[in-house]
Specification:
Largest interface: A-B, 55 and 56 residues
CATH superfamily of the largest domain in chain A: SGNH hydrolase
Largest sheet of chain A: 6 strands, antiparallel
CATH architecture of the largest domain in chain A: 3-Layer(aba) Sandwich
Strand content of chain A: 15-25%
Number of domains of chain A: 2
Mean pLDDT of chain A: 92
Low-confidence stretches of chain A: 7-21
Helix content of chain A: 25-40%
CATH topology of the largest domain in chain A: Rossmann fold
Number of strands of chain A: 15
Order of helices and strands of chain A: HEEHEEHEEEEEEEHHEHEHEHEH
Shape of chain A: globular
Number of helices of chain A: 9
Radius of gyration of chain A: 22 Å
Oligomer: homodimer
Chain lengths: 367, 367
C-alpha cells in the first residue's frame, strides 16, 4: 500500500505540466511582452496590458461588454530583433472554442513581418483546443535570414490573455519599436468588427484596413453587443481618435435603432467635434434571406436606418453613411453562417468600402 | 446516506441527453438521408452510406488514409421539398476539433439552395465543440416561401458520420433529386484538397469548382497523405471518372516525388487511358518562406517536379501541369497557417487555376 502511494505520489510529482506537450526550444531566452510595445488599446489600461480597456468605470449592464473589454482583441505587439527565430509562450484563461471560427482566431497568435516595406503574414501561433491546456509555447518562425527584422504580433480575439513572452536566440537582441500608424480610427461595432469569422487575429477587417491604409483602426467591436447602448457612449467619447467608423446596425432591432441612434450620434458629435463619423449599412441583403420573416425584418430595418440617417445628416455635416449593399458577388460565398463573414467576405467588404472610407478620411487630412 | 444515493440516482436518471440542448422543433417529421440521394462518393460503399469509400480492400499501411476514407468529406445530399423549413439531426463519432478550421467545417453541415438557376449558400449547420455532444439537431432554415425548392446539403469534412435525418413540416413532401453534375473529375490530393481550411464544408476547392463549372470534382483529398504512395493507385484506378486532377506535390518530399511520380502517372494512364490528368504545382512560393531552410527545400522540390513532369509529358500526351505560382496578391493573406488556405486563398486559387482546368476539360468534351 505504501509502495502504491509512493508510486502515485511520484506520478503526480512528475506529471507533465501544461507546457509538456509544447516544450520551449533550447538556447532561447524570453522577454515579457510588456517590455515591448503593445498597441491597439481602446484606452490605456491599468488592470492588465492585455485588456482593450478597463471596464469597471463604465458599469456596463451587459456583462459581455465587460468580458470582451478584457480580451486582447485587436491588440498587437511591435518589436525588432536580430534573432534567427521567434518563439512565443502565452497563457489564456481556459475556454472552449466557438464553432464558427478557428481556434487560432480565438486563442492563438498571428505574426507579421516587415517585408519590402509592407507588413506581410509570417506565421500563426497554433493552439490546442483542449480546454485543459491554456499554457502554450510555439516556435512561430525559425531559420530567418541574418539581420534585423521588424515584427507585429497580433493577440487572440476571443479569450482573456494572462501572460505573453517572446523568445529569441540567447545571443540576440530584441527591442520595442513604435506603432507604424500615425492616425487612429475608432472602429466601433458588432461581432463583424470584433472579428467573426476571420481565420486568424490579423485577418480582421480592422487589422487588414490598418495595414492597407497605414491608419490604425482600433477594434472596439463587441460580439452581439454593438447596439449603440447609451452606456457605451462615455467609453467611445473618451477615446482619443481622429475619426469614428461605426458598424452598429446589425445587432440592434429596428426599434432599438429608432430609439438610440439620435442620442448616440448627437453625443459623439459633441465629444468628437469636427471628426468624421462614418456609418456602414448592415452587411446583409434582402437576397441573403430565404427566411421570409428575416427578409421582411431587414427591409423594414433598412428603411428605418435610411430615414434616421437622412435626418441626422441634415444636422451633422461630418456624419457619413455608406449604403452600398454588401458585395456578395453572384455566389453568396462570403459568409460562414449568414451572420458572420469568412475571409472572402471580409475581402469583398474591404474592396467595396475601404476606398470610400479612405476618401472620406483624406478630406480630413487623415492619410 | 440512502436519501443521498436516491438523489444521485434520480439526477442520473433524468440527466439531459445529448439532444437536450438542441431539441427537435415540434410538428416536424424526419426522413433518413439514405432515402434521399447521397452523392460525391469516391466509390460506391457497402459499410456506410457516409463513407467516401470502403477502405478495407486496399490495406493502406497509413491508417490515416483508412480513417479519412470513412469521413463523409465531399459528400452531399440532394433533395426537393415543399416544406417551409429544413431541419437536420445528425450524429458524429465524437472528436475534439483541430485548431486551424472552424468546427462547422469539421463536424457541421452546409445547406445550399437552388436560386435563379444557381446553387447558393442557404445556411450552415452549426455545432457545439463540446466533445461530449455528438448528437445534434438544427433548424437550418425556416419561413421559406411557398412552393418546391431544391437543396444540396454538404456533409462534414473531418469526422465520421453515424446518422443523418432531414426534418420537414409534417404535411410536406420530400424526395431525392439527381446530382446536378454529368461529368466527374477525380480530385486527388492533400489537406488542401481535403478542405483545409475552408470555413464551411461547401467552401472547399472541389465543392466551389463543382458549382462554378457544373462538373463534379470528387474530393479524394487525404490530409497529410496526398503523397502518391503506390498503395493508393489501386483505389484511384477503380474510380469511374472523366478526368483526374492531382494536387499531390505538397505533402511528399522531393525524394518521394522523384521515386514515386513516374510509377504513379504510368499506372494512372494505363487505368484511365485517354483521360486528361492535370497536376498542379505546390501552392507555395519561395517568398512564402521567411524560414530559409524551408525556402531552399521548396526551390529544390520545384526543380525536381519541373524535371520529372517534363520527362513524363514527353511520353504521355494527356498529362498537364499547371505551374502558375500561387496567387498571393501583394498581401500574402490567403493562408491560415502557411500550409493551409483560408477562403480568400481558395478564392485566389480558383480564380487562377479554374479557367485553365476548364479549358483542358473542354478539349476532352467535359463541360
Amino acid at each position: 500500500m505504501k509502495k502504491l502511494l509512493l508510486f502515485i505520489l511520484l506520478l503526480v510529482a512528475f506529471a507533465p505540466s501544461n507546457y509538456a506537450a509544447e516544450k520551449a526550444p533550447k538556447n532561447v531566452k524570453f522577454v515579457d511582452a510588456q517590455s515591448l510595445n503593445i498597441c491597439g488599446h481602446t484606452l490605456p489600461t491599468e488592470k492588465s496590458p492585455f485588456y482593450r480597456f478597463d471596464p469597471e468605470p463604465y458599469g456596463f449592464k451587459e456583462k459581455n461588454i465587460s468580458r470582451y473589454a478584457c480580451y486582447p482583441t485587436g491588440l498587437y505587439v511591435m518589436f525588432r530583433t536580430n534573432s534567427s527565430q521567434v518563439v512565443a509562450t502565452w497563457e489564456n484563461v481556459p475556454r472552449r472554442v466557438g464553432d464558427n471560427m478557428t481556434a487560432i482566431t480565438q486563442l492563438g497568435l498571428d505574426l507579421y513581418i516587415k517585408h519590402e516595406g509592407r507588413w506581410v503574414f509570417c506565421q500563426s501561433g497554433r493552439v490546442s483546443t483542449d480546454t485543459e491546456k491554456s499554457k502554450r509555447t510555439k516556435t512561430l518562425v525559425k531559420n530567418l535570414a541574418e539581420g534585423d527584422k521588424e515584427f507585429m504580433l497580433y493577440l487572440p480575439l476571443w479569450c482573456e490573455l494572462k501572460s505573453l513572452e517572446i523568445g529569441i536566440d540567447e545571443n540576440a537582441v530584441i527591442e520595442p519599436i513604435a506603432s507604424p500608424y500615425k492616425y487612429k480610427v475608432l472602429n466601433y461595432g458588432t461581432s463583424i468588427t470584433h472579428g467573426a469569422s476571420a481565420s486568424r487575429p490579423g485577418m480582421t477587417w480592422s487589422a487588414r484596413m490598418s495595414r492597407n491604409l497605414g491608419i490604425d483602426f482600433i477594434n472596439v467591436g463587441f460580439s452581439g453587443q454593438g447596439k449603440m447602448q447609451p452606456e457605451i457612449i462615455p467609453l467611445l467619447s473618451k477615446v482619443e481618435c481622429d475619426a469614428l467608423l461605426c458598424y452598429c446596425f446589425g445587432n440592434p432591432s429596428a426599434k432599438e435603432i429608432e430609439e438610440r441612434v439620435d442620442y448616440f450620434v448627437d453625443e459623439l458629435v459633441k465629444t468628437h467635434p469636427g471628426k468624421p463619423i462614418i456609418f456602414i449599412r448592415p452587411l446583409h441583403n434582402e437576397l441573403d434571406y430565404f427566411d421570409m420573416v428575416q427578409r421582411e425584418k431587414l427591409v423594414h430595418k433598412l428603411s428605418v436606418i435610411n430615414r434616421k440617417i437622412a435626418e441626422i445628416k441634415k444636422r451633422h455635416k461630418d456624419v457619413y453613411y455608406l449604403d452600398e449593399p454588401f458585395p456578395h458577388g453572384d455566389d453568396f460565398e462570403g459568409s460562414v453562417d449568414k451572420s458572420h463573414l469568412n475571409d472572402l467576405g471580409f475581402d469583398r467588404v474591404i474592396k467595396t468600402y475601404q476606398p470610400k472610407i479612405a476618401k472620406i478620411l483624406r478630406k480630413y487630412g487623415i492619410k
